[in-house]
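Lab manual, section 2.4: Encoding a predicted structure.

Procedure: take the sequence of the chain (306 residues), apply the prediction step described in section 2.3, and record the output as structure tokens. A sample record is shown.
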Amino acid sequence: MKLKKIIIGSRGSQLALWQANWVKSELERLHKNTEVNIRVIATSGDKIQDVPLAKIGGKGLFVKEIEEALLSKEIDIAVHSMKDVPMQIPAKLEISVITERENPLDALISKNGEKLADLPHGATIGTSSLRRSSQLLKYREDFKINPLRGNVDTRLRKLDEGTLDAILLASAGLNRLGWASRITEEIDHKILTPAMGQGALGIETRLNDPIFEFISPLNHEHTYYAVTSERALVDRLDGGCQVPIGAYAKIDNNLITLQGLVASLDGKIILKSENKGPVNDAIEIGRELGTELLKMGANKILEKLL
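Recorded output:
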């Protein structure tokens, strides 16, 4: 397929633009005679910075306006962080490509260089993620959780200038923006199960759009299977931003090992399990694990929160 021009839709945050520019450079590398431009689209999630996402509608707030631009053909493709993409997307759109995943783990950045286990009693940690806060409280109930929103630079500044002892961010974003040196500790997935799709970029297109041929070389097969399995798990749980859910898939020798977690907000109840199987069964592996977690009692937690 030959295209003379392509427009990428993206949020305007520093990290979103890094991601869109990376896709732009890769497409220009693959297709020498194609002009690739980025159109910044303000989303509701970017405009509302003083309220936790769980209270204003969740993940879809970061993609809605971009998807509308895609449907109206103002843009040709959209680049998203996969952890921001809700389970249900418009019927005329699809996530057709998922690029190779960055580090999916959560990162601790502490003010005085202490690791998670060494933070002082009653340490105040900044995060607006219910998934992170519930697992932190399970790990140490003395922690105090402070809501923290804003882009990466804003959150780092709040740590440096404020009363927080530490903050939690995705390792992937810090690595992409050149802040890896600020990471005090990458938290093992056994302590903090990552978010579904964390560290992976998705390219959304119109359904069955021929542009897929143009962007398909960017698809990373193992990442696609892993994230597909994680999304199937979260979809089975019917979970969103309002619910502490973790989903983390690893692939070795074409076998998926999927870890799933559902937690109460206070961290007193943590339900964990895993499922394994061949990559071709990615969706079924996720659904089966979701069903198992529901049988373990996840439905009771979900009913209280949804």
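Check your result against the sample. The longest strand covers residues 255-263.
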